[in-house]
Write a structure and sequence with these properties.
single chain; 624 residues; alpha+beta; Phosphatidylinositol 3-kinase, Chain A; Ubiquitin-like (UB roll); five-stranded mixed beta sheet; 25 helices; 8% strand; globular
């Protein structure tokens, strides 16, 4: 990106009455983007490579598929191996997910045949019952399924179409379904040839408001699952994202993992994991770098009201001087923030992000984040972003969340700082999407398109972050199934274990047959607060909120002083803000913090062997 592109407005497919306003907004906003690019170039040291928007290098056929299968937890499929190992993850997949896996195996097999190596096994053969004469492929040919036909032909049918970004029902509220796999939803829309009307809007107030459709098992947020279960989410999310892109006819682009260079610095230009490891020696359980926390805290205290914050550049000389002082004095506690100019702090913030040896959105998936702009429908773009965020390493995801929460606060003070959602997005996009470690050049004439697309992705991440930091119910269900499959692996080790597992599964089948039972008595444990467990009578209307309310009542009856626990309950009969949480532990889940609106009898039927434990919310001061 050697030259700045001409900033000529692009015709927008909206009414003539709004054309001039949107074009003026585009020009102003894109001016901010390219000004930020110039600032980045000026702050880049002479010996460093020039930054550019992320692109992806072409890999040999089969190489990318092999890497994908390995990242998706399916490395066993690349070579003949244990069928039990292969079945473990494959047994949890939906039809569209299994089709996505098969496509990568087909491509990998073709590359092996060219090298005179035997092809890998067909996924559908692995699922086929022993002794069956017809393969899954033969069954498909003899009894064609429209969904499978659509899955196979979606790429060739839709790649030639030129989509522009769309907004569904601007300014209105829509339900966001997380119970059904996104790829399955897209397949249904494709089957009905659903193509939304194209509109392009940059007014944050006109964006569609999405409300997560809550099933009877409630909503699971990132952080509600145990670390052990969360490790399974990225592989499942990668498979689902690939299946979704296949349905939509878009290539999921990925870079190779970046090779991180060692540095003598302690703060800037240090790998994120290394930075967190050093911080955790001082403050255990640190999830966001202490320097970033300090920068954001300083800006929140004195910078949110500053006009043009983030957009107005600070002094490059002062910023470099401050960086040197922070490297020397930050960990000793001698650095003083009180007299630092707020525009210089915002410059340090942006410098910290872009100086990371690997992009915050990761080198592997930065092209995928950028490609989200090519998905025509807003809801499907958000589905793709949700999956990409779940794929991110935990350290990157937590750091990104802290940054986006701050950017939301900047936008909330728009009346004072004159920075609306689109202004903030265009300024921050270069810092997230341009990286000196990815020096690939932008195709001539594509600068404006890629710049606007990157800014639009940042805008979505800021505006919809509550939705994006949610673990879809269908992924949680797959984790449960995967855990159950894991437990079955050991049933042949010992006859006594085998008999015990048979009894457990027989009991479970008995429970599943009695789904219509009107009530159930269970015990909820809170050993730190009560000597005995709490006995709860469950019916079809019993929610987590009701159990916590019953627990509060028992505390009062036992003489506990809860005068100061004003956040236990809200007057509207909900438990959105609480000092106490109910956890599901064991069975087919590691540990799961439950949504207050979870219906417990439904949860019991899904995981009858779990324990339920009440704990204090770690985000609140301790009560007892």
């Amino acid at each position: 990106m050697n030259q700045l592109p001409p900033k000529t407005p692009v015709a927008s497919p909206v009414s003539e009455s709004t054309n001039s306003r949107l074009e003026a907004l585009d020009n102003l906003s894109m001016d901010s983007f390219w000004l930020e690019v110039e600032n980045i170039k000026q702050s880049t040291e002479a010996e460093q490579e020039e930054c550019s928007l992320a692109d992806v290098k072409t890999q040999e056929e089969g190489e990318a598929e092999a890497e994908w299968l390995q990242d998706a937890g399916l490395a066993e499929l690349l070579e003949p191996g244990s069928e039990q190992e292969q079945l473990l993850l494959l047994s949890t997949l939906t039809r569209t997910q299994a089709a996505a896996v098969q496509r990568r195996l087909d491509t990998y097999s073709r590359s092996r045949r060219r090298r005179n190596k035997p092809p890998v096994r067909d996924v559908r053969d692995i699922f086929a019952a022993g002794g069956a004469q017809d393969t899954a492929a033969e069954k498909e040919e003899s009894n064609p399924d429209p969904l499978w036909h659509n899955l196979r032909t979606s790429n060739t049918q839709r790649k030639s179409q030129d989509y522009s970004c769309t907004v569904r029902n601007p300014g209105k509220e829509e339900m966001f379904n997380m119970d059904v796999a996104y790829s399955e939803q897209a397949a249904v829309l494709l089957k009905g040839s659903f193509l939304p009307d194209s509109r392009k809007l940059k007014d944050g107030n006109a964006l569609t408001r999405f409300k997560i459709l809550k099933g009877r098992l409630g909503v699971t947020r990132i952080g509600d699952l145990s670390a052990q279960d969360m490790k399974k989410i990225p592989t499942l999310a990668l498979i689902e994202l690939t299946a979704l892109c296949d349905i939509l006819g878009f290539e999921l682009k990925r870079n190779k993992a970046a090779k991180l260079k060692t540095t003598e610095k302690r703060l800037f230009g240090v790998p994120l994991n290394t930075l967190l490891e050093n911080d955790q020696k001082l403050l255990p359980n640190t999830k966001v770098p202490l320097l970033l926390q300090a920068l954001l805290s300083c800006l929140e205290k004195r910078g949110l009201e500053t006009e043009g914050i983030l957009r107005v550049s600070g002094s490059q000389t002062r910023i470099k001087s401050l960086e040197q002082k922070l490297e020397r004095d930050f960990y000793s506690g001698l650095f003083c923030w009180d007299e630092v100019h707020q525009n210089d702090v915002s410059g340090l913030l942006k410098r910290f992000i872009r100086e990371l040896p690997a992009p915050l959105l990761t080198a592997e998936y930065l092209p995928a984040f950028a490609a989200v702009q090519n998905i025509p429908d807003l809801k499907q773009r958000l589905q793709a972003l949700n999956l990409l965020i779940l794929i991110l390493p935990e350290s990157n995801r937590n750091t990104l969340k802290a940054l986006l929460e701050f950017l939301s606060k900047v936008v909330a003070r728009e009346n004072n700082n004159k920075m609306n959602l689109w202004n903030v997005s265009t300024v921050m996009a270069p810092n997230l999407f341009m990286h000196k470690g990815l020096p690939n050049k932008i195709p001539e004439g594509k600068e404006k398109q890629l710049a606007e697309g990157a800014a639009d992705v940042v805008r979505m991440m800021i505006h919809y972050q509550d939705l994006l930091w949610t673990v879809s119910s269908f992924l949680v269900a797959q984790v449960r199934k995967l855990n159950e499959s894991n437990s079955k692996r050991y049933q042949f080790c010992d006859k006594r274990i085998k008999n015990l597992l048979r009894k457990i599964h027989a009991d479970k089948d008995k429970v599943e047959k009695n789904h219509g039972e009107p009530s159930k008595i269970v015990k909820v444990h809170a050993s730190l607060l009560l000597k005995d467990s709490l006995e709860v009578h469950l019916n079809n209307a019993t929610r987590v909120a009701d159990v916590l309310r019953q627990f509060q009542k028992n505390l009062c009856q036992n003489g506990w002083n809860i005068v100061n626990t004003v956040n236990l309950l809200k007057c509207n009969n909900s438990m959105d803000c609480t000092n106490l949480l109910l956890y599901e532990v064991g069975g087919n889940i590691g540990e799961h913090c439950l949504d207050p609106d979870t219906y417990l009898l439904d949860l019991y039927h899904i995981n009858p062997h779990a324990e339920w434990i009440i704990k204090q919310n770690p985000s609140y001061p301790r009560m007892f």
